[in-house]
Amino acid sequence: MSGKPRLTYCNGRGRMEPVRWLLAAAGVEFEEIFLETRQQYEKLIKDGVLMFQQVPLVEIDGMKMVQTRAILSYIAGKYNLYGKDLKERAMIDMYVEGITDLMQMILMFPFSPPEAKEKNLDSVKERATNRYFPVFEKVLKQHGQDFLVGNKFSWADVQLIEAILAVEEKIPAVLSGFPQLQAFKIRMSNMPTIKKFLQPGSPRKPPPDERYVETVLKIFKK
After folding, report:
1. Less crowded by CB within 10 Å, the N or C end of the chain?
2. Tens digit of pLDDT at every position of the chain (222 positions)
3. What is the spatial distance between Cα 186 and Cα 182, in angstroms, rounded to a whole number?
4. Quick one: 158 exposed, middle or buried, by C-beta within 10 A (0-12, 13-18, 19+)?
């Protein structure tokens, strides 16, 4: 396969959204195939396309890649967003893993039963403000640079701006005690490739709604 990367997933954020973010930040155009039925998903499995019978699926450079972390690592390395050496890559990995832990809570939130939503939202706020955002506030303040690692735009920066915006959708004032992150958000949002991705009509997906939740459950829940 040649040409644009091709992404196969549901028409929503989920585990594919960080992939969309990273490709967009790298200035890479991509195509998407949206799963809408259980039959489409089962056909991918039957055809042997999904190594572990899971999506996301990204077709790039002749490979059919699965597992979100592997996909993101490959894209970050391919487009020079993964640091200049092993130490920088290790820092990027640590930051990304931390942000992913926070994003997992955001990812599962739409699937919470109604009676648990308020409690889960409180958990997101507590984790964001007490565990995760303070780390990045401190990093940015200590080294006084625009980016998290090596004063160069990296995968970690992309992951962090995605997380900030996702948490703000649910808790608008979450950055009120984090001036460094407020400035970081403005810087990142004005980078040309990210600014383009944040415009209406881009491949960025809206917050999950009931229809998205129903589609996901229909396709993947046995």
Report:
1. C
2. 458 999 999 999 999 999 999 999 999 999 999 999 999 999 999 999 999 999 999 999 999 999 999 999 999 999 999 999 999 999 999 999 999 999 999 999 989 888 988 998 899 999 999 999 999 999 999 998 899 999 899 999 999 999 999 999 999 999 999 999 999 999 999 999 999 999 999 999 999 999 999 999 999 986
3. 7
4. buried
CA distance linking residue 10 with residue 158, whole number of Å: 22
Domain positions in the chain are: 6-79+198-211, 86-191
How far apart (Å, rounded) are the C-alpha atoms in residues 178 and 182? 6
- Is 86-191 assigned to CATH 3.65.10.10? no
Stated pTM of the model:
0.94
The CATH H-level (homologous superfamily) assignment of domain 6-79+198-211 is Glutaredoxin (3.40.30.10)
Q: Given strand 31-34, what is the order of strands in its sheet?
A: 31-34, 6-9, 57-60, 63-66
